[in-house]
Amino acid sequence: MTKKSLGKQIRITFSFVIIFILFLNTLCRVFLVIHEQVDNAQDTVLHNAQFGVELINADMLEKSSIIRALSLQFSGGLEKGSISSESLLSYLKVQASNHPTIEAMYFAAPELGFLHSDDWTPPADYDFTTREWYMGAIASDDVYIAAPYIDAITGDPVVSVSKRTIGSNNQTLGVLAVDIKLSMVQDLLRVLEKDDGECVFLIQDNGNLVTHPNNAYMSNSDSLSHVSIVTDSYNELLNLGETDVARLQFTDGNNFYTANLPIGDTIFNVVAAYPASYVFSAIMSEIWISIVMMFISCIVVYIIIEVIVKRWISPLESVVNTLDEIKHGNLNVNTAHIHTPNKELDSLVSSLQVVSSSITSYIQEIDSILNSFSNGDFTPQPKQNYIGDFGQIKVSLLNISEQLRTLISNIKRSINEVGALSKQIASSATDLSELTINQTNLIVDFKSDTVKVTEDIIDIIGDIDNSYKIAQNMSDKVKDGKEIGQNLTVSMQAISSSTKDMANVIKSIEDIATQTNLLALNASIEAARAGELGKGFAIVAGEVRDLSHKTAEIVSNIYNMINDNLANLEQGEQMVSLTMNALDIIATASDNTCNVSKQVSENATNQKDALNRVITSIEKLENEMSNNNAISQENVAMSQEFEAQLDILRTNLDEFTM
After folding, report:
1. Which CATH class is domain 21-280?
2. How far apart are CA 87 and CA 95, in angstroms?
């Protein structure tokens, strides 16, 4: 593997470290920005919701104050009877016109009826005492705020604020109420709206949408829209606590941070929505700024690294290049061009030059000595003074010369001995080859017999599997027969029960026939008493008595037949019970047979696997014996070749000068 230069490694290492540090810094900033933006979004949406609650409370407080003042003002005159319905209606019109945020003002009392500031006359079936605004005010000691509804005059959704008017004895004089358009309530919240989707709207506890800045969400029917038209996650919205903020997806596809705060003790809640796109935009802006800063920082760091490398690392690279030339055999190197900006580099370059010249002279002498050795002359010896550790080279050359002379003498003596041993090895290899061939033949015969036994066992396993399948099938048939017998028993019991019911019915018919016979007898007696006038009736009574006799006989026959059927059914149930017991015994025997067949099959399969492993081992042994035979034959050939090489070695050794 090619290694990188020091300068390149420094560039890569420092660049990676700086980029990693900048990346961590950017990542931390992004995490902080995400956390800050999410916290800001949650704080903003909670603030908007709280501010919306305060606006609604302030408006409702104003309307409640008006209601309380007017109710107190009316109570005295109504109690004394000094205020007529016409004067009260005129006063309601004046008060309604003086308060533009009030849609209508009205007063209802059983004695005065229903008085409306817009002169609206309710239909004949209109009962104001059943309206929520009236019943709520009657049941409350203070101002009551009713659920929103569609105004019958304008068709706009409104909410009623009502107050019970009481006399000096705390008796109810009537109920004073005002209608407030929900659109005016939404107008109060428009200060918290923005064009990009940030908004505040009202809902009820049950999820009905009271107001919304988007009129497309407001219903045009007689009922209010549900908040599910704004978001599919309305259950999560309705279950939010007063300090909770949830990130919900609205039906327009946008995500909003949403808060839901109740308005006092009323049924209304203020919902504030803050677009999640604000957070995303702020995060993306911070990411782009961080990327640009990281890019600029990388450029500055790269320039600094290049200056450092060029001034202090480039001379080291020149020294490395010079050493690389020496490594490739170029010992005549020049170090004058290498810049030495410091003491260490100057010492390094000087030492490199000395090493280069010394190694060159040593190698020239060593080359001359080794060249003589290559020509078979081992008499030359080194003459130069080898300094330092190079002195060991001189000692080694002298030792090499002496050892080579000794070695050649020993080799000549050993060649003769090795030649005799080579002949013995060739003879032993021949004998081993013949023995290996005989063993291989025996193994082949053993393998053939084992394969035959395995095939016979496989056939036996097949027969055992068929027997197991037949036994299993028989067991399944017995179970099916047992189930059919159980069904037959149930059916026979049902037939027996039905037959007994029929017997009871026939018995009832027999009783009716007996009573009919008695009735006919009484009728004959009465007809006889009547004389000539009762003769026709006597004939009819006789016919009825004959018919009752025949009916009794037929019923008796049917009853006997039913009893016979019941006896037969009981005998059939006993036979079915005996059959079921026999099937149980057969099923048990079939299961035992299946289990035994399965165990035999598993044992036979294990034997087959064991024989297969034996065959595999035999084949492996056969291959090894074949390899041994080949090795033996190869040893014979090698022994013959070795003897020939010994003859050549003797001839070559005779050429050396000792």
Report:
1. alpha beta
2. 12
